[in-house]
Structures are given as C-alpha cells and as structure tokens.
Description:
By secondary structure, this protein is of the alpha+beta class. It has helices at 10-16, 22-30, 122-129, 149-156, 194-201, 233-242; strands at 7-9, 34-36, 39-40, 47-49, 54-56, 59-60, 68-73, 103-104, 113-119, 137-144, 171-176, 180-187, 205-214, 217-218, 228-230. The strands form 3 sheets. Strands 7, 8, 9, 10, 11, 12, 13, 14 and 15 form a 9-stranded mixed β-sheet that branches. Strands 3-2-5-6 form a 4-stranded antiparallel β-sheet, with no helix packed on it. The longest helix has 10 residues, at 233-242. The model has no long low-confidence stretch (mean pLDDT 91).
Amino acid sequence: MKAQVEKMRIDKYLANMGVGSRSEIKRYIKNKRVMVNGVYITDNGLIINLDDDIRFDEEKISYRKFVYIMMNKPQGVISATEDKYQNTVLDLLDPSYLHFDLFPAGRLDKDTEGFLLLTNDGKLAHNMLSPKKHVEKKYYVEVIGYLINEDIDAFSGNIIIDDGYECMPAKLEILDSNDISKAYVTIKEGKFHQIKRMFEAIGKEVTYLKRLTMGPLKLDENLELGEYRELTEQEMQMLNDYM
C-alpha cells in the first residue's frame, strides 16, 4: 500500500520554514510571491503536500521537520532556551535556526565546555537522556591533586555524592597524575554537577571540564568554541542505530 503524503496549510508550512509570520505570509501570497508546483497561489489556507514544489520569490523552500546541531559549547553560556540575565546556547545560533524551536538535549554547566546536541526532536532527546538507555558521555577533566589507582576503583564502584545519591559505575582513565591531574571520565547518567561532585567525594576539585562524546557522536575537532554544524547523514545513521 502506498504511504500517505503528509499535508499542511501553506501558511503554516512557510512559517515553520522561517519565511515569516502568518500575517506576513498572507501578504506575500496576496502579492503573488508564493508558488506551488509552478503556479502562484492566492489562498493562504491552501492545503499542500509536503513533497510539493514550494517557492518563495522563486526560491525553493524545502520542508524540514527536525534539525540536529552539534555545538562546541564555550564557557559562560547556559544550556537553556531563554534566560533574562545570561546568554544561552541559542544566542550563538544564526537567526535562521530559531523558528525551529531548538533546545539542548541534555545540559552542560555554565563553566563546562564541549559537545552539546541541539534539536527539536523531542523523542530522540528523551531517548538520549533516559536513564534506562544508559547513554555514555565521555569528558576530559582536570583536577587539583594527584589521581591514583584507588580513584579508578572508586569510580568503577558506586561513589556516593553529597546528597546521598549512589552513582552508577563510571570509568576513570588517568592521563597525567600531578599537582593538576588530567583524565577522561565516562558516565552513563547526568545528575546536576555530577562529575564535579564525584571528584569532590574522593577529595579532588575539578578546574576544567569538557564533554567529548555523547552516545555514538564525537565532538568535531574542527569546531572552535561557540561554533556549530548540523549532523551529517552518517552521524544521523549512527544515532538512529544507537537508539
């Protein structure tokens, strides 16, 4: 049986794609700036198929329901959609993305850098964050004090943090043990300030934290702090296979 083609009002279609507000689009249509399958339309309530040829000022407008963006989050911005007093990760995006109503799939602390996934796909975000999925997240961390093998054992056990919560087993890989030690930490959950609190539980203070991976996705090393790009088809396939 042939799959049904999804339909939508033309004004909603164009609004969703950031062409303008509903009232603006009504005016555009009246001024014969919108074409459907090669014909200028006059009805802003016209029902179209999502695979129709839609053009505004002769430029093709292709429909996208979901957007997936990898960002290298810098310090100093918060992982939120809006805030009255502080810059958010959405403030780093080109305005052309804002009509997609993107949100962070998981948060990074204000002073934490690295991989952040922005999307408007609620189902995928839920799966990425669900405790039942045990999605691994790998971080690079620097802490004050020497790291030793006993710390590796502590992380692989069940560290109890300050509020009494017993963390799931995590992986600590020591890169350099010194006055300022360097390591990788991989966790499968994401409690508030979890990594900092886990190190506090073993008597260490985190001075720098950067997320490198989330599930099968790795931070693009070519992205400078504050830069972003959409996920590639290969990365989307990896993500779908992982979920």
